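User: Hello! I'm new to structural biology and keep hearing that structure can be predicted from sequence alone. Could you demonstrate with TTC8 protein? Please show me the input and the output so I can see what each looks like.

Assistant: Of course. The first part below is the input, the amino acid sequence of TTC8 protein. The second part is the output, the predicted structure written as tokens.
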Amino acid sequence: PLGGNAAEAPGPAGPPRCSEMGLEPLFQAWSYFRRRKFRECADVCSQLLERPPGEQIFYFLLILIQAAWSLKTRALTEMVYVDEIDMDQEGIAEMILDENAVAQVARPGTSLKLPGTGQGGGPSPAVRPVTQSGRPITGFVRPSTQGGRPSTMEQAIRTPRTALTARPLTSASGGFIRPGTASMLTNPDGPFINLSRLNLTKYAQKPKLAKALFEYIFHHENDIKNALDLAALATEHAQFKDWWWKVQIGKCYYRLGLYREAEKQFKSALKQQDMVDIFLYLAKVYLRLDQPVTALNLFKQGLERFPGEVTLICGIARIYEEMNNISSAAEYYKDVLKQDNTHVEAIACIGSNHFYSDQPEIALRFYRRLLQMGVYNCQLFNNLGLCCFYAQQYDMTLSSFERALFLAENEEETADVWYNLGHVAVGIGDLNLAYQCFKLTLVNNNDYAEAYNNLAVLEMQKGHTEQARALLQTASSLAPHMYEPHFNIAILSEKVGDLQKSYTAAQKSEEAFPGHVDTQQLLKQLKEHFAML
């Protein structure tokens, strides 16, 4: 039994409060992280890590410091994180200096470099516009639809940098933040981690810290070599049994352009663990190697293991669309909607396919569905205006285009709207309005080859031959993949008696669109004329 002075003896004053233990800031940082407030999370973690060394005595404080370090690393990574599955842009260097070509002359329907050879019976360039690589313009802008494969370096460099054509980036690394830039953006005082002084072997032996550190090095610092070294040490420490590290090594190899090594790593990871992401990464490797048929077979194997997986079905549809097999692509997009009826890409692509198949009423239903889902942008109202016009619902046409102009975020989008308004003006017979609309298109986007071509046609109707010739030459130099400027130059030259130039332009038109009947008839007439001479 205690004596009378027991109350005066020192004793515990109840459980310590979180603020006294220093745990409350960590919970606050974790709360910020869960709410995606990464800047605030990093700031709180920085305050924890800046404590004087004298306070870091107890073991639980050491654990606290490790947790704060890991959390800050993850927060900084999330601030610049980009999903590697969608980052598949090719630059000029990757396209022209590609040493991974499997076959110089691919069989029809087996290459993305020659998508026009597909057996899908898709709409011709006379109905559906194509990019410089021969792919039809899709209903949904993706990185892969903006990357093309120009045949020459000159063509790649001269191509206008817009999404209307196959846009060549200067390098694939342009899609990533340059090394060091992300550090300066998120840490004004300098980088959070000095990679040159890290002992990667020590961190590789701590799996939880190693994974957070790898993500930081790979995404935030964009230092692929150090990330690969850490992943190699970590997978060795895990006795090559951790599929996650094999996937990360494959990602590093892919970023470095070592596609065959990346393929080996992804296949090894797939043997250990069935994951949808691994199928997507492996298919991405095959597409970069220009093996779309292998990628299609891989996606179908994935669907056997993951029936109804939307990303795999969508991947098949994208490949068919890039190979100009539009009918098969539409069927797979419909399968996507059976699994996920709010999939924006599938709805947009099916709507685009119906529009170019001369079914604007059905396309209008799909675009209205996007509007009901909350998609509210310039492109959607632009498409709604076109569908309303060709479906003869004239009361909604101009109001849709007005809304599109109001929502346009840049000059390229504004140019698209004015170009389509020019088509509407031609359709109603107001050629003066059409002329003004095409002029406004060029004011907003000086590289709009289609507008130059249409302006030339209007000038020809006015009898201004020299102006029309100059506009057509500009259009043909901006977009050598379009057959219309070449054919119009051939017609114009034939009318003024320059038969040699007409024949040369007609040959270029036939090369761009082999199935164009008018070009073939013109070439036949010119050959007969030359034979008579």
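User: So the tokens describe the shape?

Assistant: Right, they're a compact way of writing down the 3D structure. Reading them back into a model, for example: Residues 59-79 form the longest helix (21 residues).
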